[in-house]
User: Fold these one by one.
Assistant:
Number 1:
Amino acid sequence: MMNNLPKILFYGYGNPGRQDDGVGISFTEQLSDWAKMKGFKNIDFDSNYQLNIEDAENISSYDIVIFVDASQEKDISDFDIAQVKPSCKVNFTMHAVSPSFILNLCSEIKKQIPQALLLQIKGYKWEFQQLLSERAELNLQKAITFIKNKLEKYLEKSNLDRNYSKIFLK
Amino acid sequence: MGKKITIEPVTRVEGHGKVTIYLDDNNNFKQSRLHIVEFRGFEKFIQGRPYWEAPVTVQRLCGICPVSHHLAAAKAMDVIVGAGTGDGLTPTAEKMRRLMHFGQVFQSHVLHFFHLASPDLLFGIDGDPAIRNVIGIAKMHKELAVQAVMMRKFGQEVIKVTAGKKIHGTGAIPGGINKHLSTKEKLNLLIGQDPMNIDKMIEWSLSGLEFFKNYHKDHKDIIDNFAAYPSKHLSMVRKDGALDLYHGVLRAIDSEGNKILDDVDTQDYLEHIAEEVRSWSYMKFPYLRKYGPKDGWYRVGPLARLNTADFIPSPLAQKEFELFKAYTNGKPNNMSMHYHWARLIEILHCAEMMKELLNDPDLLKGELVTKGKKGNEGVGVLEAPRGTLFHHYKINEDDQITMANLIVSTTNNNIPMNLAVESAVKQFISGKNEITEGMLNAVEVGIRAYDPCLSCATHAIGKLPLQIKLYDSKNNLLDIKTKNDE
């Protein structure tokens, strides 16, 4: 494997005690097992209930960060992945913040930001249970397969494209 | 023409709340209410689950303060497994739990003051909302933003090494704890690379206090007079009257400082505290039984704790406590904005206590679990970041939970928050012809001083737009303003 590989962080967030809200956490757990098996030393994994201001510091040392969250968006059928740009737009519940907010705060306090993507996996049920719904589980597996393929193809190349974000788009 | 204004949801608090303001034909204050608009079903949900699951399961309640619920449930389960009511654990178990709790309070208070509250102070209540947030702080006061981020990170590290993991931590178990601290974990926190070490945390806690005190000198009007009203105060204190966030007895004082409840065993909380339901909110209204629902309400949280405690058992925080008490000549402090001052003193106390515990050899070795004669009922009380948190469970012969009653900190502050809204409306909105964003933010500033976590009292899912609705006296909608979430 090449030495000059980009440092990648997958960051899943949500409450796994609230059914499909935990799909981001499940994603990082399952992909982490696969990455270990493959021996990808340049990929790290992190997770939490929600993003918060300290994550601005946590992401600053990476080349690319892929946030993974559950989604209720009507327009998403299974999963979607999109670039994240810094934004100072404030959420209503400010105890938790958005990926774009984290990126913006990172640029303010560290003067450097990783390229960032948000992987949203469609969820359907949000009750006090720990198991994902069947449909969310299906979407999760689709998203994992998609990312695995992207990572394998990308990391096999000898001449790496430094526009990392583009590599992972659908 | 009379008016009704609705602020929905309230911003920079956790969960979803709605404020309705009624003005009369001359735009003068008539009535205001903070409504909690979602229903909480957790107490019902947990029935039928085995008791030993509770410390982990209750973390589903809220992603903001899972550690508080984890520890309160564990304390209740200590009673059920016969390990005592807070003083029966092994030294290792109790100290590990205390370290976890100090880490939690530290990071929670830091988030609230630097991230949520300081923008209102630095940019003004009526400042430009586009910069009145932590990004604005990072642009204009970068050192404060960096400190907030690193202090949060430090607190999270403490939680991680004591609870075992960041999500659904398993550290506290019925009767004790399931791990020691490793020497590496201890040294990382004690003498980690600058700034991630406890001495830097103490230094920054002191500088945060200086920041507030300097601001206070120049802005006495807003800090001392905004949403100030007399009240009773309730908290847990150590047996000898010291501030104790983890365990003690219940104490309440009136607005003059007279002890109206003292040395009450937390297992007996129901003999002294009851809850009332009102038709317009899903959040209950707790009160002291002997004063009844109308007069028995009280405040909890940092301000209440510093009012009820006789002293703080850590030297630097004690010095600050003395200044705090001197400001009101030893009388109870009834100024809502002084919650921030009290919160900053508690941040310093937590940092000092974390240092003391990290130097304690008991964390590295010793028995982890206490066993005793099993009972069927237990109460766990904790001074959570936002105030006194009650967890009460009963179990059956099959070890299943048959009853759960949770009075969360934010619920205890229900009436005080409503009064803060009323006070802000009277001061900023009543009698004015035009309602500005700054005036509406003033209402939110009053609520925000209490750092409410509405997720704990409800269960927030999904995103709501901010809506401000203006009605005439016949309830006809005159105007609607909506600010969309991301």
Number 2:
Amino acid sequence: MDRDARGFKVALVAGELLNPAGGEIDALAVLQEEDWGAVQLPAADYPDDVAAPLLEQVAEQAEEFARNGYTLAVVRGRAGLDEALARYGVAAPPAADPATADELRAFLAEVAG
Amino acid sequence: MPGVAFVAHCLLNQNSKTHGGARCPGVYSPLVEELRAAGWRIEQMPCPELAFTGLHRFWAVKEQLDTSAYRRHCRRIAAAVAGAIEVHVRRGDDVVLVGIEGSPSMGVHITSSDPERGGRPEWPDGSSELSRGSGIFMEEIAAELAERGIEAPRAMGISHQLPDHDAGAERARLRELMGAG
């Protein structure tokens, strides 16, 4: 297997934190600094019938990371995520809803061990 | 809002790449910097290859992935993404797609093709599979949007996989794409 630059750490992140506005933390900047990849959860402004199939895709992709031993974490999360993950046999990853960038850094460091 | 960019999954998560393909631990920053600087909203598309062929997949050309089952898988993802695109189009948002040039799935103007490739994996030095055309997922999302009566968004592909990659030119193309609405 070729080695490459991947970090083997993947955060499932609320869409709003990847497109921060009005005082939200910039999760993407923190993830980049801390060498995590991001899987974007459907934003809250999508209607349920639009968000549901996107959430299903998140769960299906998370399953592939989980079964290969990648570290997973949830940042803020979204309604229906745990249920979608359960349908793919993925246990709910550690989760947090940090209020500041420092809190997010501390959470990611704790999960990464 | 300036616009919404639907970007290839791996641009925010290099962990989804074929082994040997990740350029950085997680987030491919040049894309994010340009979109953020212009005030664009980022929407990540699912990686069609990740769940179908897995993290241990070989590098592949389009012909190796182009099965009815993979097309159905891509169409399922395309339907999910098209639903989100439709929300933005109905709101009057400017929408663009950002894929991955050279990818058998996410290529926009350049995919990879070799009708002879198959069997025991051998990649002779010097062989070139790059060819004009779109990847399978890009074809399927175009078809899905057409069925919904939505005009195909402007699109480009990130070129970091190509031998003649020019980071400055890539950023300029992205700025041009965002500014062309």
